[in-house]
Specification:
Length: 404
């Protein structure tokens, strides 16, 4: 008789977005006259940039002719794309990353979920709380997290690093030594960032205790402040202790097009074994590459026009972020994020729980956001709004909230 992977049975139901969906649908059915504004989604809404569409069309046409047809992509991804990445994302920022240290993929979710494959089961992970759920759930599926404890809403074998107002929504070095440290800056869900100097402390710590940092830089393109690093490799010594994961989803609107990459420096070794070669082996066996047409589209993002056009999209979202931050502050809310990230993290008023505030906002303002508790126990008492809506809807949502 076959057996299932029982680690899956330990996972608490990921009811967050389905619960939100159900509540919103129920409310909408009973209130057909109300216009609901959704600022809960973590998905982009602006269309792909014209240069990206052009590159896609051209690549599609190439696929229709034997002379220019492309089959399986090379293992690491096409060199034209890896070259553009190395040049613009790394060399331009003084980071020495080589072409064969970049692995093209179909996105940061799969890479951050799959990276655990190359690490032993005994490794202990440390995560921020609140956190992007993929890091924890994929480690739970692998059997690395112990048991889920309902009363604390925590796994028994995970080191949680609370990110609250007291810590400026950044994690502090854990007292218990982790083996794998997941960091994401600019952060989803809190929209917080840390400076290069602060990130250097994490790199130094990882080098000291022999840990690997898995650095999710999916929101790198939203950074506006000078002292915030765009890549962990801007920190000294990071090539010996950090893996960086990036995505084209939020910087260029590829959420439905699918493209990302992971950087593993060859210097990053465990007892002489290079993680770069393990990941190459893993991807070579389990992954057959991102589509040629999508990699061409990714290349176009780095062209002069591409950089200009995607910058405009980000500016559009960040204008929304500003509207949300200013609107909330003028309505008396305590707000963070929204400066280097498309997420605004607000303290729920009058001691409301994050779900109470969800209901309140839905019923009184017809605005949908995401309860902070859905991202981890330290998210209780907080609420996330995103800047990914339309400008007009964002303005209207803020007018409604101010009238409450
Ligand atoms: C959106 C997001 C990603 C991007 O995932 P893709 O699979 O590339 O679309 C990665 N990490 C975080 C924290 C995100 O919010």
């Amino acid at each position: 008789m076959f057996k299932v992977n029982e680690n899956y049975l330990k996972l608490p139901g990921s009811y967050l977005f389905s619960t939100i969906g159900k509540k919103v649908n129920a409310y909408a059915q009973e209130n057909l006259d109300k216009k609901i504004i959704r600022l809960g989604i973590g998905d982009v809404t602006q269309p792909l940039a014209p240069v990206v569409i052009e590159a896609l069309h051209k690549a599609v046409d190439e696929m229709g002719h034997a002379e220019t047809f492309h089959g399986y992509a090379p293992d690491l991804g096409y060199e034209f794309l890896r070259k553009a990445i190395v040049e613009h994302d790394y060399q331009a920022r003084g980071c020495k990353i080589a072409l064969d240290e970049v692995f093209i993929s179909d996105g940061a979710k799969s890479d951050s979920g799959n990276i655990g494959d190359i690490f032993a089961l005994e490794n202990k992970i440390a995560v921020c709380d609140p956190v992007y759920p993929v890091y924890v759930d994929t480690n739970a599926m692998a059997g690395r997290t112990g048991e889920y404890l309902e009363e604390t809403q925590k796994w028994s074998n995970v080191i949680y690093m609370p990110c609250t107002a007291e810590t400026n929504f950044a994690p502090e070095l854990p007292s218990e030594e982790p083996d794998l440290i997941y960091l994401c800056f600019p952060n989803n869900p809190t929209g917080s960032t840390i400076t290069k100097k602060e990130l250097q402390k994490w790199v130094d710590y990882a080098l000291k205790v022999g840990a690997v940092i898995i650095y999710d830089a999916a929101y790198e393109a939203y950074i506006t402040e000078e002292e915030v690093p765009h890549s962990i490799y801007e920190c000294e010594g990071a090539a010996a202790c950090a893996i960086e994961i990036r995505s084209f989803s939020k910087n260029a609107g590829f959420t439905g097009t699918r493209l990302g990459f992971t950087v593993i420096p060859k210097e990053l070794k465990c007892k002489g074994v290079s993680l770069n070669s393990l990941w190459a082996r893993r991807q070579g066996t389990k992954f057959n590459g991102a589509p040629y047409i999508v990699q061409r589209a990714g290349e176009a993002v780095y062209s002069e026009e591409g950089r200009k056009q995607t910058k405009e999209q980000i500016a559009y979202y960040m204008r929304n972020a500003k509207v949300i931050c200013e609107g909330l502050v003028s309505a008396g809310y305590t707000v963070s994020g929204g400066v280097n990230a498309p997420y605004i993290w607000l303290k729920t008023p009058k001691g409301m729980s994050s779900w109470e505030f969800f209901d309140y906002l839905l019923e009184q303002a017809n605005v949908v956001g995401t309860p902070g508790a859905g991202f981890g126990p330290s998210g209780e008492g907080y609420f996330r709004l995103t800047a990914f809506g339309s400008y007009e809807n964002t303005l209207e949502a803020m007018e409604r909230i101010k009238r409450l």
